[in-house]
Amino acid sequence: MNWLLIIVILIIAWTAVYYLAITKLKSHVAPYGPALLIKTQAGVKTIEKVSKFKFWDYFISFYYYALPFFAAAGVALLVYEAFLVLSIPRSAAPSLSYVLALPGINPAIPIVWGIIGLIVAVALHEASHGIAARRFGISVRSTGLLWLIIPVGAFVEPDEEETKKAEPKTRAKIFAAGPGMNVTLTVIFLVLAILVAYSFAPVPGAPVQSSLIPAFHPGDVLQSIDGISIPNITALSDLSITPGNYVNVTLLRSGHELTERVMYGVYVTAVLKNYPAYNAGITTGSVIISLGNQKISNITNFQNLEDTYKAGQTVSVETFNGTSYNFYNITFASRYSYLVSSGVANPGIPKDSAFMGIEVSVLGLSLFDQYSYLSLIRNPASAGPLGFFEYLGLPFHFELPLPSVLLSTIYSNPILLNLEYLFYWLFWLNFALGLMNLLPIVPLDGGYVFLNIPALQKNKKARDAIVAAVSLIVLFLILWELIGPRII
What are the residues whose beta carbons fall under 8 Å from the beta carbon of 404, sequence distance 6 or more? Predict the structure, then answer.
């Protein structure tokens, strides 16, 4: 598919539509940069009716006074992330496609759920501005959509002259209502997503994400090995089976039980170039039989033995590749130095920790911990102080919605599973939109609230200078997260 040709055709077609719209439909369409504001009266009467409830006075006032604290928290988060960026190697810099929280552009956001979530978040955000305007007696002239080839936003248009004549505090409250609604919806949909998650139950076993052994497929759930029950992935860490022996593995595949016969052991799944194992000639797919003449029966055994050595010491390593045994003498490197070179600022381990330069796993498997996953989506705090951000970051690991190969790891009702996806994305996109608009940067809502703080109105030149300075600092912090990893 020739994407460049498609893009050129879309630009030409949009230019023609844009010209016709602003020349022939002036009463309903207005230019907004390269986009079009399509004005309607849809929803104006609804806003009028909804705004009559006194509840909105409390809602608007609460978020007017709370917004500076939320904004400060948002800026503090940006500052914290600015320091985290320093530890990200250039090779791990996030793709620019992750910058915009738009379905179809951001690969972490699913198209259908993303569009639904974005429509709800933007529509209710804008409706809140209209409701706040009406509470202060300001007319709502129109509502509508912002189009740039496709709908990219919505708006509610209070009367501009009436808004200008209003007190600065009133204007600030109108601006605060939008992100306030997103914060409220974030909490509501987070609670709903958590409640639905309690309807799920884990499938006992060790789910496979990927495997070196062709006998295992992504989505398989290991149940037992030679009759030894495997209720979870932890059970694989402490098995006592002779390495190199063949074992019968019982597993579930697409709901059906079957048995595969494979060679047991701690497999080398990756070898790091220019580190001891690579230099010695150890290859991916080999099973480690012994380390220092002691048999390696499981991961825990391997890690404990490796920890008894220090960087600079030499050890004998025996491996088996299915046809022949191989012996190597390896001089350990420093795990501490390796982690530092990988971008970890303070590894928190002794500087002489032994490191062979390999990654290993039982049976060559990469596994998925369905118990920890369910614990996280039922209670984000279960993952510790930063559990909320781990929960928020699930899409960037493509774990919510779950990849199809991992749906076999939980028992779920299809209706409730789809509700979980819906509530999660409504939570996620309201959080993203609310957080962005809380920031004290013009032309975002937080910036206009800052601009209309009554205490800053005595000296408008000083006010404008302060707001501009803060806006530039916040903008720099946002851009630094994209630029930092690429220049360090």
Answer: 219
